[in-house]
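Lecture 7, part B: from sequences to assemblies.

Below are the input chains for today's worked example.
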Amino acid sequence: MDFDARAHVREATLNAFNFRRATKAFDPSKPIDPADFDVILQAARLSPTSNGLEPFNLLVLDSAAVRQRIVDEAGGGPQWVQAPKLVVITTKRGAGLHADGEHITHMKLDVQGFPADDLPGWQEHFEYFLTKNLELDNDKLRLEWARRQAYIVLGNIMTAAALLSIDSCALEGVNYAVVDGILDQEGLQDKVKDQFAVAVALGYRAAEPKRERTRRPLEEIVRYA
Ligand SMILES: Cc1cc2nc3c(=O)[nH]c(=O)nc-3n(C[C@H](O)[C@H](O)[C@H](O)COP(=O)(O)O)c2cc1C
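Predicted structure of the full complex, as structure tokens:
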């Protein structure tokens, strides 16, 4: 990349981060171009995950009825119904996060092309790593580990959107158990295998944000050693 191109990318990158605001009100009449939305989904797909095990899935929730249920029953904010696109990030859970479970076995053999003969040895090693090194010795902690990875996906979705001048808002402010219940009842999630992690609303802002953005200065955030 030559000097001018690099300067341009620097500026475009910072512009995107400055543009992104937690959008409280979306203009329902402005849809997202499907080609843009595809880039956003690819950014999610290409997100890094621990050991490349992709313990997440995306549910593109277009159903107005299900979105309304989440507002009415789980306390979701107005973005849940207004946003032209709404992506729910779910994570694997339970056996889905065990080294010898269906999901991880699928990832190793079918996606990563790992030799089947070496799988038992790898599983033993990985289970040790999760339990002893990361101290993830129960399913609840492992679910939180998967959720941490879902938040990387969330960040990449919001950054990709911002680079395309598309607004977003991370949505965590719901009752998780109620959302899980709704998604299960609506047949949108297998409650044994998957669990709600976080959602993100996408579209175009209806108005400029009311509040000025606040951030600590870099000097307060960063230390050098
Ligand atoms: C993980 C996460 C969850 C959030 N959940 C909500 C939410 O449920 N509803 C909402 O209106 N904003 C939500 N926000 C937006 C934050 O309040 C917002 O990002 C923060 O106040 C900083 O403002 P800015 O994003 O405009 O810079 C969430 C943000 C993050 C990162």
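Note for the exam: Residues 21-22, 24, 77, 169-173, 198, 213 surround flavin mononucleotide (CB under 6 Å). Keep this in mind when comparing with the next example.
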